[in-house]
Design a protein that fits this description.
Elements (H helix, E strand, L loop, with lengths): L17 E3 L2 E3 L6 E6 L4 E7 L3 H18 L4 H17 L1 H12 L3 H22 L5 E3 L6 E9 L2 E5 L7 H13 L2 E5 L5 H14 L6 E3 L4 H10 L3 E7 L2 H12 L4 E5 L4 E5 L5 H13 L9 E7 L3 H14 L18 H16 L3 E4 L15 E4 L16 E7 L2 H9 L6 E5 L3 H10 L4 E4 L32 E9 L1
Parallel strand pairs: 7-8, 7-10, 8-9, 10-11, 12-13, 12-17, 13-16, 15-16, 17-18
Antiparallel strand pairs: 1-2, 3-4, 5-6, 6-19, 14-15
Helix pairs in contact: 1-7, 2-4, 2-5, 2-6, 3-4, 3-6, 4-5, 9-10
This protein binds succinic acid.
C-alpha cells in the first residue's frame, strides 16, 4: 500500500521520473522498483528502473553538455551553483521530508543535512575561482613553462542512502565548479531525494545534460559507467566490499577513482577529559543518523579510572533520546534503513552479550513494531573478541571498553583495517597532539565529535578508501594538470 503524502512540489510520488538531459523519464520498459518508508514499512513510491540504456543516454548528454559547460567562466559556473544552493535553502523542509520518508533520517537531522549539503555548493562556487595554474622557471632563456588545470570531462557519482543529498553535493559541487558534467546514481533506498534535487537543478537553469540522475539497476548502471570510455572519473561512497570491486573494474580503462568507504571509529576518553563534554560528544557521534554514518563512534575506549562515572553520565543522556517515526519533529532516533540493518545490529548485541558484555540501556526493538527500529543501546564490559569491536556496526549501539595507558589505547585504536575517523577527548595539550599524530585515520576529532565541514578534507586511510572530498583538496580529482612548454 502507498502512503498518501502528496503535498510535494519537487516530486510527484505517483509519477516519479529519472532526470536525463533535462527530460523526465517516467516510464521505462524495465518497469519500476519500490521505495519503502522504514518507519512504517509502507511503500512510498515506485521509481522507474533505469539501466544500461538510460545510463548510456545520460553519459552522452553529459558529454554534449561538457562542450559548453567547461567553456563557461568560473564566475558563470559559480553563479549557477549559488542559485542551486539558494533553491536548496528555499526547499529545505521539503527535501528533508522526502529524505526522512524514504530512508528514515530523523526530520530535524535531515534539515541539518540539507544545510550541510548546500554548504558544499557555496564552498565550491568560491573554489571555482581559485583553480590556479603554475609557472615554472625554464632551463633556457627562450622557453616558458606553464601548468594549466582543466576539467577531466564527464564524471560519475555513486552516492549512498545514509546522506542522500550531502554526498551528492560533496561530489557534484567540485565537479561542476571544475567544469565537469556528469551522472549521479543514487542508492536504491534513497532515489527520491536525488530526484527532488534534480528538480532544483532544472529550476536553477543549469543547462540540460550537465547533471543527470539515473536510479535503478545498480549492476547495469555501474557497468555502463565503468565500461563507457566517455566517463573519466568516478566518485563512490559506500561499503569497503563494493569499493574493492570498483577498484578492479576501474583498472580496465584506468579511470580515476575516489572512494569514501567504511569506518570503525575509535572514540577515546582520557582520564583528564571533561566527562560531560566527552559524553555529549559520544552521544552526538554515536547516535547521529541512528548510528548509520561511516564516521560514527564505533568503539568507545574509556580510561579505567573514569569508566563508571563516564558510563553513568552517558547512559543518562542516552535515556533522553526519543526514538520514533522519523517524520515526527521531536524524534532524534529514527528507524534503521531496512531489515538487514536491524538483523546486523541485533546479531552484534547478542554476540557481545554471549561473550560477557552487559546491556546498560536499550538492547531491543523497543515497542515500535511497525518499522525497522532498534533502541539506542549502551554495552559495558566489551572486549576485543566481540564482533562489535571488529566490524562496522551501522546502528545505535555504543560499546564501552576500558584502557590503562596511552600506548595501549593507541595500539588498540589502530588495530583495524579501517582508517576513516577517530576521536579523542583530553585536556592535556601534549597528549592531544601526540595521540592525534599517532592515530592512523584520515579525520581526527579532538574534543570534537562533529568535525565534518565543507572547507575541510574528508576521507580515509587504509581500507576506508582514498581521495578527499571537501576542502580545496576535494576539487583536485576533477582536474587534469596539463604542462605546456613554450619555445619563444
Ligand atoms: C559519512 O559518514 O559518509 C559522511 C559523514 C559526514 O560527512 O560527516
Amino acid at each position: 500500500m502507498m502512503t498518501t503524502i502528496k503535498e510535494f512540489t519537487l516530486i510527484d510520488l505517483e509519477n516519479v521520473g529519472l532526470f536525463v538531459n533535462g527530460e523526465w523519464l517516467t516510464s521505462l520498459k524495465e518497469g519500476t522498483f519500490s521505495v519503502e518508508n522504514p518507519s512504517t514499512k509502507k511503500i512510498v513510491a515506485h521509481v522507474p528502473k533505469g539501466g544500461q540504456k538510460e545510463t548510456e543516454k545520460a553519459i552522452a548528454a553529459a558529454h554534449d553538455a561538457f562542450q559548453t559547460w567547461s567553456k563557461l567562466t568560473a564566475q558563470e559556473r559559480a553563479d549557477y551553483l549559488l542559485k542551486l544552493r539558494d533553491l536548496m535553502h528555499d526547499h529545505k523542509e521539503e527535501l528533508a521530508t522526502i529524505m526522512s520518508l524514504e530512508m528514515g533520517k530523523a526530520f530535524l537531522e535531515a534539515v541539518g543535512e540539507v544545510t550541510y549539503a548546500a554548504s558544499f555548493l557555496t564552498w565550491y562556487a568560491e573554489e571555482a575561482r581559485r583553480i590556479y595554474g603554475e609557472t615554472i622557471p625554464a632551463s633556457s632563456p627562450n622557453k616558458r613553462l606553464f601548468v594549466v588545470k582543466q576539467p577531466v570531462g564527464v564524471v560519475a557519482a555513486i552516492t549512498p542512502w545514509n546522506f542522500p543529498v550531502a554526498m551528492m553535493t560533496r561530489k557534484l559541487g567540485p565537479a561542476l565548479a571544475a567544469g565537469c558534467t556528469g551522472i549521479v546514481k543514487p542508492a536504491s533506498q534513497s532515489p527520491l531525494t536525488a530526484l527532488a534535487f534534480a528538480k532544483l537543478v532544472e529550476m536553477s537553469g543549469i543547462p540540460n545534460g550537465v547533471v543527470n540522475i539515473v536510479a535503478g539497476s545498480t549492476k547495469e548502471i555501474s557497468d555502463e559507467i565503468f565500461n563507457n570510455p566517455i566517463v573519466k572519473k568516478i566518485s563512490f561512497t559506500g561499503s569497503t566490499e563494493v569499493g574493492k570491486e570498483l577498484v578492479v573494474q576501474s583498472a580496465n580503462q584506468l579511470k580515476k577513482l575516489s572512494l569514501e568507504l567504511g569506518g570503525h571509529a575509535p572514540f577515546i576518553v582520557f582520564e583528564d577529559a571533561d566527562l560531560e563534554k566527552a559524553a555529549e560528544g559520544a552521544l552526538a557521534s554515536k547516535f547521529r543518523n541512528a548510528g548509520q554514518t561511516c564516521v560514527c563512534a564505533n568503539r568507545i575506549y574509556v580510561h579505567k579510572n573514569i569508566k563508571d562515572e563516564f558510563a553513568k553520565i552517558f547512559v543518562e543522556k542516552v535515556k533522553q533520546l526519543k526514538m520514533g517515526d522519523s517524520l515526527a519533529k521531536n524524534v532524534e532516533i529514527g528507524p534503521l534503513v531496512n531489515e538487514e540493518g536491524v538483523i546486523k545490529v541485533k546479531a552484534q548485541v547478542e554476540d557481545a552479550v554471549n561473550k560477557g558484555a552487559k546491556i546498560l540501556i536499550g538492547g531491543t526493538n523497543g515497542n515500535l513494531k511497525n518499522g525497522y527500529f532498534f533502541e539506542p543501546t549502551v554495552l559495558d564490559n566489551v572486549t576485543n573478541d566481540m564482533d562489535i569491536m571488529k566490524e562496522e556496526t551501522f546502528g545505535p549501539v555504543a560499546p564501552l571498553t576500558i584502557f590503562e595507558s596511552d600506548e595501549e589505547v593507541i595500539q588498540e585504536a589502530n588495530n583495524t583495517k579501517y582508517g576513516l575517523a577517530a576521536y579523542l577527548y583530553t585536556a592535556d595539550l601534549k597528549r592531544a597532539i601526540t595521540v592525534s599524530e599517532a592515530l592512523n585515520f584520515g579525520i581526527i576529532g579532538l574534543n570534537d565529535a562533529l568535525p565534518g565541514v565543507a572547507q575541510a578534507p574528508f576521507g580515509g586511510m587504509n581500507e576506508s578508501g582514498y581521495g578527499r572530498e571537501g576542502g580545496h583538496q576535494g576539487i583536485r580529482d576533477y582536474l587534469e594538470e596539463k604542462y605546456i612548454s613554450l619555445e619563444l
